[in-house]
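$ ./design --mode recover --in tokens.txt
reading tokens...
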């Protein structure tokens, strides 16, 4: 049985966890039939994923939060970057939200127009269809 011997620092662990959510979203989009592109670098463009069908491309930012409460405020971390959606994953619960990018400095996660999903592929795909 494999044994993980690496001891990660707290910042490294947070980075690995964040990347795991980006990969999870990419996997779920792929399972739903989307073409998924992952930028090699993500400096200043704030794009973690690009998903496409035959006619449309959507730039997506993936975030995770350390909260089981969906009434929290989330900050606009992309500012002037031209993204279409932000996907939030709760690290402490089994839900997430898909939100259109917003221009305010912060907004409640459960605001109107934000679509909640259960952290599983089919509910995620249904939520993206509604977003």
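writing sequence...
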């Amino acid at each position: 049985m494999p044994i993980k011997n690496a001891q990660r620092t707290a910042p490294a662990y947070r980075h690995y966890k964040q990347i795991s959510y980006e990969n999870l979203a990419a996997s779920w989009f792929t399972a739903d039939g989307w073409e998924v592109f992952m930028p090699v670098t993500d400096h200043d463009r704030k794009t973690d994923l690009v998903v496409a069908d035959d006619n449309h491309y959507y730039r997506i930012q993936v975030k995770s939060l350390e909260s089981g409460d969906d009434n929290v405020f989330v900050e606009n971390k992309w500012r002037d970057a031209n993204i279409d959606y932000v996907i939030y994953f709760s690290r402490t619960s089994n839900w997430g939200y898909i939100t259109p990018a917003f221009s305010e400095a912060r907004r409640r996660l459960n605001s109107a127009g934000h679509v909640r999903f259960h952290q599983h592929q089919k509910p995620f795909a249904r939520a993206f269809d509604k977003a």
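exit 0
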